[in-house]
Amino acid sequence: MQTIKESLINIINPSNGEVLSEIKPSSTSEIIEKIQKAKTAFPLWSSLSFEKRITYLQKIYELIIRDRRDIATTISKNNGKPLTESYLTEIASTLQVMEYHIKNGAELLSEKNIHLGVLYPAKKSFISYVPYGTIGIIEPWNYPFYLPFSAITKTLLGGNTFVFKSASAVSVVGKLIEKICLKAELPDGVANFIYGDGSAAETLINSEIDKVVFTGSAEVGKKIAEVCGKKLLPVSLELGGKDPAIVFKNCNLDYACGGILWGALSNSGQACASIERVYVQSEIYAEFLEKITNMAKNLKVGDPFDDETDIGPLINEEQVKKIEGHILDAIDKGAILHCGGKRLSTSGFYFEPAILSNVNHSMKVMKEETFGPVIPVMKFDSVEEAVYLANDTHYGLAASIWTSETGNIKKIAGKLNSGTVWVNDSLFLQAHPKCPWQGYKDSGYGSCSIYDFVRVKHISLDQGYIPSLHPKSFWWYPYKGKARSFHALIEVIFKDGIKEKAKATFQTIIDFLR
Ligand code: NAD
To answer: Fewest C-beta atoms under 10 Å: which of 161, 369, 382, 383?
Structure first.
């Protein structure tokens, strides 16, 4: 385990590279104290009715609507995304998740009856949903407001308390989330916040918490899975992606280029489900390249607060270096750069979107998560080849298909190894609470739904206590003569078709009478 650093963390404004704020990392003893507080608060919070828990969520929801200008400003300052995206992909997405759970939470988590069928007339079965206890929530920097509040909403609704660690680069947004929860006056100890780098999160997952909800890279996700595996600590992992887009010759080219551009460059390409590889059918390859290059050249990279800005800065220097590395590696191996691909200024982390062609799967840009404004484009001839290339990755988060022939599209979508497939769309409904969101392969496991935040409890009740009606289950001791009964009954019960069942029943009666 890494040791926790005690020096202040500099939070950088990505637009100018200057220090936006300094934050004191939580010490080990502070983290342990927060976990204890969360555990102490659990019995009270979990005993509150849904209605009561929902009143607190409603307060948070209203505070977010009321303070949305300040919230959007803080997100754009700390993360660098254009103000439009702060409103759309952070605040509106958060409100959408909260509204859905406020309205439907009681129903989603209400007790459900299971009908066991005529064979078990005296039995009744119920499923209820119970909280885990204290959940450790660890989130990345790319959606610093939406991702935490999506997890916090479901954590609280499920009756859990939590300890949350934001990514250190966006601790200013983390502090804002803490302030909002404080203003909502949640009972003492229910919502706890810690700050710092990976070492603070390691202390959290090595403690006595009851579940981990993690969103972040596959690399860190695997480390967390290892720690949780040793303790059999339940964990949900929402990890990275290398999402392909398949463009068929019959697509509407303008529409496809527009959708791919947004899906690849929104949030400066720093989304888990960003389009990171584009496969274009050979007949339209040249036309596609020309069109998307012209469109990319027209996008405005700049200050997140400038109304004309389409693409804000990257989060930090580390991201700039990583993306430059991927582009250089591709060019070294024969790729052609059609536009952009370089840093725009020395202050701030602005980066011109790049379009690359002549790429192949030996290049980093086609294999590793780039997480930046880079669109590598490759040619394919047949559907089989497109599916093979799209699946040739160790990730499996999402994929998109662009075509005007949708009649048979579910067949192709079914062959793509990813949790979500968009047809003629990108990045949409990732945040919609009705839609599942889960990765295959190195993109993790967990569904992001409310049922990831509760345990399932099954209660089965046999009314055999009414002796005259139902003296005892007939498979109980003694076994004498029962092997013969079961031999016969298996056919009666499980054989298909009324005729066959009737024949088996008749034979069974004859056997018993002999
Ligand atoms: P990251 O994995 O570096 O960090 C995520 C969080 O884990 C941070 O809070 C970090 O402090 C913490 N952490 C770092 N080392 C740790 C350790 N050893 N033990 C425990 N916690 C540790 O990811 P990032 O760079 O902040 O975010 C980008 C990644 O997140 C990308 O891979 C992206 O695809 C992924 N992501 C996935 C989804 C999804 O829904 N699948 C959504 C958003 C982002």
So the answer is: 382
For the record, the structure tokens of 246 come out as: 């398949």
6 lies in a domain?
Answer: no
Closest ligand 1 atom to residue 397 Cα is 41
* Distance from the alpha carbon of residue 430 to the mean position of ligand 1, in angstroms: 17
Is the domain of 382 the same as that of 477? no
Say whether both 334 and 185 belong to one domain. Answer: no
Structure tokens at 258: 């527009």
For 442, residues 6+ apart whose C-beta sits below 8 A from its C-beta are 218, 221, 239, 240, 394, 395, 396
Please indicate, yes or no, whether residues 257 and 204 belong to a single structural domain of this protein: no
Domain that holds residue 494: 467-513
- How many Å lie between the centroid of ligand 1 and the Cα of residue 272? 10
Q: Check if 398 has its Cβ closer than 6 Å to any atom of ligand 1.
A: no
* Domain presence at residue 100: yes
427 and 357 both lie in a single domain: yes
Q: pLDDT band for position 64 (50/70/90)?
A: very high
Q: In this structure, which residue's CA is closest to atom 40 in ligand 1?
A: 238
Domains of the chain: total? 3
Query: Which residues are the active-site residues?
Result: 238, 272
Q: What is the pLDDT of residues 249-289, one digit of tens each?
A: 999 999 999 999 999 999 999 999 999 999 999 999 999 99
